[in-house]
Amino acid sequence: MVLTSQGREALHRATPGHAALVKRMFFDGLDPSLLGPLHTALDQIHEQILARGTLPRPCGPHWTATDED
C-alpha cells in the first residue's frame, strides 16, 4: 500500500482539525491532576504496541509532556 501525493496532501489538510477535535473532546475538560497519570499510561500502552505489534519504532524527535503546543 502506498500513500499518493494527493492522499498525503489530504492528510496534511485534515490533521489540524482532527487534532483540535481530539484535544477538545478528550483533554480540555480533563482535571489537570489526571494529565500526568494519563501520560504515563499512554506511554506504557504505546510501548506495548511497539513491542507486540507490527508497527516499526518511530525515529526522530517525538512529542513529550514537556513540549509546548
UniProtKB/TrEMBL annotation:
Entry protein name: MarR family transcriptional regulator
Family annotation (InterPro entries): WH-like_DNA-bd_sf
Recorded superkingdom: Bacteria
Gene3D superfamilies, A to Z: Winged helix-like DNA-binding domain superfamily/Winged helix DNA-binding domain (1.10.10.10)
Species, as recorded: Actinomadura coerulea
